[in-house]
Amino acid sequence: MLKKGIIFVFIVAIMTLLSVLGLLYFKPYEHQNIASDYVQNRVNIVIEDIALKSDYSIIDNDKIYIPVEIIKKYLNSDIVLDKADNRLYLEIRNPVFKLETEKLDNMIRDGIKLNFLTVNIDDKQYLNIRGLEKIFDIDVNYIKETNTLIIDRIKKTIKLGEIKSNAYLRPKKSSFSFVIDKLHTGDKVVVFEEYGKWYKVRTQKGYIGYVLNKVIDVKTGEVDINRKINNVRRNVKINGKINLVWDYVYKYSKDLSKENKIEGLNVISPTWFSINSNGYIINNGDFDYVNQAHKKGYKVWALIDNQFDKNLTRKFLKSKQMQENLIKQLAVYSSIYDLDGINIDFENVYYEDKDKLTEFVRRLTDTLKQQNIIISMDMTVPSTNPNWSKFYDRKKLGKILDYCIVMTYDEHWATSPKSGSVASIRWVMKGIENSLKYIPEEKLIMGLPFYTRQWEEYKDSRGKIKVKSKVLTMKDVERIIKENNLEVIWLEDVGQYYTEYFKEGKKYRIWIEDDKSIELKAKLIYRYNLAGIASWRKGFEKESIWAVLNSIIEANNKDISLSIVKFNGLN
């Protein structure tokens, strides 16, 4: 009897001790849940059932930056990083993502080459994954409560669990391991593997651990997979006159969320793409830029250029493979970035390649029209120069393209042998009239310069006048006028103000672009019934210019514009 009593007392003591230890153990679980497994003040990364303890993501507004080394290790081992150029190259041999149509899917079926800009943060390369989820075949979710980014590979089936009674999530398969979090009846979890009486799970907060299988009801569910990046565009047409501005992007795009909406502007064209000899388009696209542009009511026509290199262009136009690569890549980028249009800016092309260029534009247009994308092309004013003007088959291109943009500027170009206006009114009118001989008025957009040039004239050793120039923005001109206390005069026949001054034995001359000169040229769209205006480039203008252009675009009044043109003696 005594022996049984001792055993009983011993059991009670053990149970009491375990109870006390249990109370001490379970009480602080709320403070332990992320202390050792999650980095504070940074966005933690969880890839399926793996919590990355030493790496983190950075979320900046709508951008989600993930370390490139993490992408290569866990998501796609085929990526190649060029640290010097901050660029990630990706060749996808069997794409699983889908484009807008089945025909486009078949076009990329045999593979696609893509590249994306990376950013260097604390000497580590990051990629903005936003907009690229379907390219990498992943699903991304940010859990604000725990500051955790969850990345899942897209799968057809998934195991889901529902907690049947209150339970604890533990880091190890043991009831004696500490508690990560408390789970409540009805909580949902993702189930990964079963280990005896334990399931490895991930909670809705992004925590990963083990739960006793007796407290969880597990079901395998079918996932409705949508690998389609985008849909065929709707409402891409501009109602009324087009008011486009080119946005020069050297590499990284501006943050449009920090800019006010420009009233009257309806198309913005970032200079994002260039052809290259390595089979890749140089891609500087930015998903967030397009998103912000669309919020402001702008359509986005991304520009692609030929680097103004006629030898590179000849190589490109000789190679069906290079052309095919470009067309496929542009189709994919148009889907990724949700583009409304593509603007082709091929300049300095061998005249002998005229027909090849026209055929390439036709093929590119036929492909992108499956996405219902607007296709435009920039052209010089017609002239006799074979490699700068005559290589454009304007008549054929006018039938293929949605719009042709005649660049009515650089009347006197950067290396011109004599000083003069960039775009005098009569020269602009002549350029439009000659373009209309080949291109229908409803397809012709007039290019405007937001810049001018300051010409420096001096005498060489033989007494001959030499000139050189530099580009000035509108604000640059205002500053020079103010600093030198200059007078300006209006030149009726040129349609611009003019000023000049002498300094250190040299003569400086400026034909000024301002509100008045731009207004005069812009109103020609009604004289010739053109499709609209395109301005080079954003950042060169004064803010007041937008009010001028907006009043013209909104007015849509031919009688007013004609009266002003006649007033200037241009009828």
UniProtKB/TrEMBL annotation:
InterPro entries, A to Z: Chitinase_II/V-like_cat (IPR011583), Chitinase_insertion_sf (IPR029070), GH (IPR017853), Glyco_hydro18_cat (IPR001223), Glyco_hydro_18_chit_AS (IPR001579), SH3-like_bac-type (IPR003646)
GO molecular function annotation: chitin binding; hydrolase activity, hydrolyzing O-glycosyl compounds
GO biological process terms held by the UniProt record: carbohydrate metabolic process
Keywords of the record: Glycosidase, Hydrolase, Membrane, Transmembrane, Transmembrane helix
TM segment ranges: 7-26
Domain GH18: 240-556
Domain of life (superkingdom): Bacteria
Family indicated by similarity: Belongs to the glycosyl hydrolase 18 family.
Descriptive protein name: SH3 domain-containing protein
